Amino acid sequence: MPTAIAVTSPDLALPATDRQTPAAVVLRAPHLAPLDEALAETSAVLEHHGHLIVLYSTACPPEHVRRLHTLRSVLESDRIAILPSALPPLGVAVLARQLRQLSMCGFSPGVLACAARLLAHYVHAGALLGSVSGLDRVEVDLRSHMKSWLPGVHFAVLATPQPQLLHLDRHSTQAGLRPPGFATQLAVARGQLSADWVTSALAPAWQVQGVYEARLPGESARWWGTQKLIEFAAAIPDPALLSRLVASVRREECGWCGQEVIGDRCAFCAAPLARDRAGGGSAGREPAAIAGAPAAVAAPAPALEPPPPRPTRPARRCGSAGCHPWRPPASPGCSASTACRCRDRRTPPAAPMPRTPLMPRTSPTSRPPRTPHTWPTPRTGPTPRAPRVPRTAPGARRRRASPEARASPAPRGARPSRAPRPPPEHPTPRARPTAPGFPVARAARA
Fold first, then answer.
1. I need a surface site. Which of 68, 116, 138, 439 has the fewest CB within 10 A?
2. pLDDT at residue 301 is higher than 60
3. Which residues touch 129 (CB under 8 Å, ≥6 apart)?
């Protein structure tokens, strides 16, 4: 049996285009289906189909997303893949129908689950809005916010694959949005906005193969931030082209759960693959796969010419004839086999310093005999002082400085000259006392 494809709302289950496409499984919200009933229904789907792939939009309520993970945890099954999608709700519905068509092409559950990320790049989803004041999933500038308050103003918004925002008049006939480069079919879901711009201007500009009406999903107003909208989504309608597009991507085996994987991550166990082993054929094979031609191998990039080799100067030896004039001749210790190490220096190499020869060690027996220690001879009397030498000879006159020398200032930092000291005068010896009865001489007193 083919792998089952499930959605979170009946509005996301588009009718099949042929009799071979299986129907979608709807996992209802928690307030619509109790947990026991949801467990029984999910268990029956796994027994019948073997694997289950669940798609939901980012506008899905958080309690509904928790219900999906609860079902997988309670059943303890690794055969359930829960895949969020950044597409608008109508784009999720179109993507779910493409996976239902591919489930009949014989792809393994791992490849089919990973193909959801690949096919999402080929879905052009957008909307015609009456106001962008509540839009937070596409970047909106201040001017567009101010124009939202004007009556009769419309905005054409393209969410995927590349966001784009345009301001339209009420009677505008130009599309303005970037068209897809391949054949598509346009799905239109009308809300509370009455306008025919999508069918009268956008469809002819994009050259779609057909336009069909669909019911507006209940999550669209929450995703776009307003109820005044007309949502559209253009996608590849041919199942054979979708099958050829998925088959052109390299497949790998998941190292954790063993499923076949395309891309860089397993959709069942979320285990990443090595970058050098991951398949990346979606970006490089897009034109060949969409045009209907067999997938062509991308031509290798032309090899760049290597840069010319840098001229190198051969190593010269010391004392050779080609040395520069400043290079000294070879030293006596330089051998002919050693290349000159100073060929890139700007100063001649210094001569090696001679080593000081080591003195030979002497044996203990060859040492000179020690002399006995002699004590110094004690002094017998006071040591006489040496007379101080006068700076000028005795009797020499001291020259007086000239007026010019006295007027000129001394140089800064010079030490001023001092007058020489006079020679020391010896004191007059005292008169020795005489014995009583002897008169003192007058000359001695004088």
1. 439
2. no
3. 135, 154, 155, 157, 193, 224, 226, 228, 229
pLDDT band at 283 (very low <50, low <70, confident <90, very high): very low
Q: How many CB atoms lie within 10 A of CB 245?
A: 25
Higher-confidence residue of 39 and 417: namely: 39
408 in a domain, yes or no? Answer: no
Look at the chain and report how many structural domains it folds into. 1
143-181: b (≥16 Cβ within 10 Å) or e: ebeeebeeeebbbbbbbbeeeebbbbeeeeeebebeebe
Element (H, E) at 403: helix 403-407
Q: Is residue 413 part of a domain?
A: no
No. of helices (H) and no. of strands (E), the chain: 13, 12
CA torsion, ordered 311, 315, 320, 321, to nearest 10 deg = 0
Within a domain: 281: yes
**Is 167 a domain residue?**
yes
Residue 160 has, within 13 A of its CA and on its CB side, a CA count of 22
Q: Render 338-399 in DSSP notation, one character per residue.
A: SPPTTTT-SSPPPPPPPPPPPPPPPPGGGSPPPPPP-PPPPP-SPPPPPPPPPSS-TTPPPP
Task: Render pLDDT for 39-91 as a digit per residue (tens, 0 to 9).
Answer: 999 999 999 999 999 999 999 999 999 999 999 999 999 999 999 999 999 99
Scanning 207-279, the segments in alpha helix (DSSP H) are 220-224, 239-247
* Domain that residue 85 falls in: 4-290
